[in-house]
Design a protein that fits this description.
heterodimer; A: alpha+beta; Aminopeptidase; 8-stranded mixed sheet; 7 helices; globular; B: mainly alpha; 2 domains; 6 helices; disordered C terminus
Chain lengths: 221, 112
């Protein structure tokens, strides 16, 4: 791990043209961000049956996640990703809610990790048509990197875990595998605190793997 | 948790119903909640109805107006401010610590 804390990435490759970099910034998610996303992107995302997040209402999710985790004596870390549009100004393009100090899903090691509970990227076609962003960024690795960086900076050495929503089908499993995460075998036991049967849709990155993934994005920080 | 009190101010749900829902939902596995949300069922289980803001603000923001998130763990005070700001009644956004600020992990977790 780097001696200095890692920063979040500040550029991402364009989804359509990987040689082009798009400026991005992260902010902490407020109610106004959730309301904007629900009003401006939510109704259009809801029409896309292939999206796992088509029914996610962030203005409900944001307080819900905070309060449910508070009841479990944990904190959430909700973030917004912004990207520079053609006008030079920044537009919201991604949303995520992580859980801090969640049990690491590899049960052989009783450790904590960051759990990526919800994450969502705006439809690139919508960003082009409605928000003047000719080259929307590719966000999959960026959203994962945010969790890895927070995990590393929190002393959890980059360990992360997530569950791929069933609504995302096989495509979502392929996406996370392509992003470099390890799919837990369906036979693998889960930590008792997770209280869920393993359905084969859990993913992790261990310390070494997380460092490799983070290092790949270091030039973009 | 005083944050609960904020829920009632702008939502038709009663405080009791919200507390009961949070208590019940906190027994659900996170992956199960993810599935319920993805099936569009969360409104049945969580009686919180955010007030639709009259002004969503501009779709875009100048870079200098963005308050960048810190990549470090937040202090409990900052966490509490963020939780309050997640509720529509708490319109005052917290002043985020710029990501350039360095804080030690040990300090960030004291009391967390």
């Amino acid at each position: 791990m780097s001696a200095q804390p890692r920063r979040f990435t500040r550029t991402a490759p364009s989804k359509a043209d990987r040689t082009h970099s798009v400026d991005i910034r992260m902010t902490d998610m407020l109610a106004s961000d959730a309301a904007w996303w629900d009003a401006r992107l939510g109704p259009k995302h809801a029409r896309n049956r292939t999206r796992a997040d088509r029914f996610w209402a962030w203005s409900v999710l944001l307080p819900l996640c905070h309060l449910v985790q508070l009841a479990k004596r944990r904190y959430c870390r909700p973030l917004v990703v912004w990207a520079r549009a053609d006008s030079g100004r920044f537009v919201r393009v991604g949303m995520s809610i992580f859980i801090e100090h969640y049990p690491y899903l590899d049960v052989r090691r009783r450790l904590d990790s960051y759990f990526i509970w919800f994450m969502s990227a705006a439809d690139p076609a919508l960003l082009k048509s409605d928000f003047g962003m000719t080259r929307p960024p590719a966000l999959g690795r960026v959203l994962l990197d945010n969790a890895i960086v927070l995990s590393q900076n929190a002393g959890l050495r980059g360990r992360i875990g997530l569950h791929a929503a069933a609504a995302g089908g096989k495509a979502l499993l392929s996406l996370y595998a392509a992003c470099g995460l390890t799919n837990l075998a369906p036979t693998a036991p889960l930590p008792a605190e997770v209280k869920r049967k393993n359905d084969g849709r859990f993913f992790i990155a261990d310390e070494a793997h997380a460092e490799t993934l983070a290092a790949l994005l270091d030039p973009r920080r | 948790m005083s944050e609960f009190l904020k829920l009632e101010a702008d939502a038709p749900a009663t405080l009791g119903a919200v507390v009961e829902a949070v208590t019940r939902l906190s027994t659900y596995p996170e992956a199960e909640l993810l599935e319920l949300v993805s099936r569009g069922r969360i409104r049945e289980l969580f009686p919180f109805r955010p007030t639709r803001p009259t002004d969503l603000g501009s779709d875009s923001v100048a870079e200098e107006d963005l308050i960048e998130a810190s990549a470090m763990p937040l202090s409990p005070e900052h966490q509490a401010a963020l939780i309050q700001s997640s509720l529509p009644s708490a319109a005052k956004p917290p002043r985020a610590t710029p990501s350039r600020t360095r804080r030690t992990t040990k300090k960030a977790y004291s009391g967390g």
